[in-house]
C-alpha cells in the first residue's frame, strides 16, 4: 500500500511524523506500507516557486492514499493566491475532486475534563461535519483585488451548481444511514441564493432516503446550537465556507483542535487525510503540538481508503488507552494528568499499538 506523505509547513511535519510512526508500528505485524514524501505549501514555494509542484500532485494522484500535514504559515501579506501555501491544498482538493470532507467530532470520554465546556453537555457527543470541499466562495469566479473608483476592492464569488450540491447531499444521507439517521443541512437560505438552491436540492434528494430525518438550520443558529446542544447533531452537511468555520468551532467539543481528524474523498473513494488544524506557526518547532488529530486521520485512511478496518480500530483503541493512562499534550492538559510533548505522545501510541498486537 503506497501512501503519499505531504507534511507541509509549521507543525505539519511534526505531527505527520507521529502518524507515520504509528502506521509503521502497525505494519510490524501486518501489511506493509510504502511511504513517499513530497514538498507542499510554503516549503515547496520556497524551494521551487510553486506551493503545489506538479511532481507532488502526481504523487498524490498515484498513491493509494494521501497523508497531509498542514500548508501555509501566516498569510498576512497580499501575496496572490498562487503563491500562498494554503492555496496548494485548495488546488490539490480541486484537482483530485475531493468534494466530500468528513470531519468527525467525537468527545473522548477520557477528555471530558479537558474542555472549557461543561462535562454534562459533552458526554456522548458524536457528530460528523460533512463539508463540501470543491465549490463555494473558495473557487467561484470572479475573484481578486482590483482598483474601482480609486480604491481597492476585494471580490470573491459564492457559487454552487445543482450537481455539486446533489452529490454531497447524497454523501450526507448515506453517512447518516450508517449512523443515527439524522441529517442536518446547514445554509443561509434567508439571505443567499446559493443557499436557497442548496436547501431545495437537499430537500429533493431527501426523497431517496425516507428513513433519514432531515432538518435545516441557518448557519448562525447552527453555530449556537453546536455549543448549546451538541448531542442533538448526528451528521451536518454544509457548504465549503460554513463547514470550515463550524468544524473549528465544533473542535472545542472534543477539548482541542488538535483532536480533530478529517477525510476528503472523491467519487471513486480516493482520499486525502489530514488534521483539521493548520500549521500553527505559534507553536511550531517546540515539540508541543498535539499529534492525535494526525494519528486519527491515519486511522480514517486505513478504514476508508486502504480497506484495513481492523487496523483502524486498533489505532483508535491505542489513542484511547494512551489518554486513559493520563498522557496529555499541552492543549488538552488537565489536573492530575502527565504532560508530554509531540514525540512522546507519538511514541506512546506506537508503543501501545505494539502491545495490542501481541496481547
Ligand atoms: N489544512 C491545512 O493545511 C490548514 C488548516 C488550517 C489553517 N491552515 C493554515 O495554517 C496557518 C495558521 O492558521 P491558524 O493559526 O489560523 O490555524 P491553526 O489551526 O494553525 O492554529 C490555530 C490555533 O490552534 C492551535 N493549534 C492548532 N493545531 C494544534 C495542535 N495540533 N496542537 C495544539 N495546538 C494546536 C495553534 O497553536 C493556534 O493557537 C495559516 O497559514 C492557515 O492558512 C492550514
Ligand atoms: C488552509 C485553508 C485553505 C483550509 C480551508 O479553508 O479549507 C483550512 O482552514 C482547512 O480547514 O482545511
Ligand atoms: Mg479550516
Q: What report would you give on this structure?
A:
With 359 residues, this protein is of the alpha/beta class. It has two domains: 1-97 and 262-359, Isopropylmalate Dehydrogenase (3-Layer(aba) Sandwich); 126-252, Isopropylmalate Dehydrogenase (3-Layer(aba) Sandwich), CATH 3.40.718. The chain is built from twelve helices and 14 strands. It has helices at 12-27, 42-48, 54-62, 85-95, 119-122, 162-177, 193-205, 219-228, 240-251, 292-304, 309-324, 342-358, and strands at 2-8, 34-37, 65-70, 100-106, 126-132, 140-148, 151-157, 182-187, 213-218, 235-238, 263-265, 271-273, 327-328, 338-339. The protein has a ten-stranded mixed sheet, with helices on both faces. Strand 8, helix 7 and strand 9 form a beta-alpha-beta unit. The chain is globular. The two termini are 25 Å apart. Nicotinamide-adenine-dinucleotide (NAD) is lined by residues 11, 15, 70-75, 86, 89, 257-258, 274, 277-283, 289-290, 293, 331. Residues 11, 15, 70-75, 86, 89, 257-258, 274, 277-283, 289-290, 293, 331 line the site of nicotinamide-adenine-dinucleotide. GO terms for molecular function: 3-isopropylmalate dehydrogenase activity; magnesium ion binding; NAD binding. It catalyses: (2R,3S)-3-isopropylmalate + NAD(+) = 4-methyl-2-oxopentanoate + CO2 + NADH. Its main location: cytoplasm. Pathway: Amino-acid biosynthesis; L-leucine biosynthesis; L-leucine from 3-methyl-2-oxobutanoate: step 3/4. Homodimer.
Amino acid at each position: 500500500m503506497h501512501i503519499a506523505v505531504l507534511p507541509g509547513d509549521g507543525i505539519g511535519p511534526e505531527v505527520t511524523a507521529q502518524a507515520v510512526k504509528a502506521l509503521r508500528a502497525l505494519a510490524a505485524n501486518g501489511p506493509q506500507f510504502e511511504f513517499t514524501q513530497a514538498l507542499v505549501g510554503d516549503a515547496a514555494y520556497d524551494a521551487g516557486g510553486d506551493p503545489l509542484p506538479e511532481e507532488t500532485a502526481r504523487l498524490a494522484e498515484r498513491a493509494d492514499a494521501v497523508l497531509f500535514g498542514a500548508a501555509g504559515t501566516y498569510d498576512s501579506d497580499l501575496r496572490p493566491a498562487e503563491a500562498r501555501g494554503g492555496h496548494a491544498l485548495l488546488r490539490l482538493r480541486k484537482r483530485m475532486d475531493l468534494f466530500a470532507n468528513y470531519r468527525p467530532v467525537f468527545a473522548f470520554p477520557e477528555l471530558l475534563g479537558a474542555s472549557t465546556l461543561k462535562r454534562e453537555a459533552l458526554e456522548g457527543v458524536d457528530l460528523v461535519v460533512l463539508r463540501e470541499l470543491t465549490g463555494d466562495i473558495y473557487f467561484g469566479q470572479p475573484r481578486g483585488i482590483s482598483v474601482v473608483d480609486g480604491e481597492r476592492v476585494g471580490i470573491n464569488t459564492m457559487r454552487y451548481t445543482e450537481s455539486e450540491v446533489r452529490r454531497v447531499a447524497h454523501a450526507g444521507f448515506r453517512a447518516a444511514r450508517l449512523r443515527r439517521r439524522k441529517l442536518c443541512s446547514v445554509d443561509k437560505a434567508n439571505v443567499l441564493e446559493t443557499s436557497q438552491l442548496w436547501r431545495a436540492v437537499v430537500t429533493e434528494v431527501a426523497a431517496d432516503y425516507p428513513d433519514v430525518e432531515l432538518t435545516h438550520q441557518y448557519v448562525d443558529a447552527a453555530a449556537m446550537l453546536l455549543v448549546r446542544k451538541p448531542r442533538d447533531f448526528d451528521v451536518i452537511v454544509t457548504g465549503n465556507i460554513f463547514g470550515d468555520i463550524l468544524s473549528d468551532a465544533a473542535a472545542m467539543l472534543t477539548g482541542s483542535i488538535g483532536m480533530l481528524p478529517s477525510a476528503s474523498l472523491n467519487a471513486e473513494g480516493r482520499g486525502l487525510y489530514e488534521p483539521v488544524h493548520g500549521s500553527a506557526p505559534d507553536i511550531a518547532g517546540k515539540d508541543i503540538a498535539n499529534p492525535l488529530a494526525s494519528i486519527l486521520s491515519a486511522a480514517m485512511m486505513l478504514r476508508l481508503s486502504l480497506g484495513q478496518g481492523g487496523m483502524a480500530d486498533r489505532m483508535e483503541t491505542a489513542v484511547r488507552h494512551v489518554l486513559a493512562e493520563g498522557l496529555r499534550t499541552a492543549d488538552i492538559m488537565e489536573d492530575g494528568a502527565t504532560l508530554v510533548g509531540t514525540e512522546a505522545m507519538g511514541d506512546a501510541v506506537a508503543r501501545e499499538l505494539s502491545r495490542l498486537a501481541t496481547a
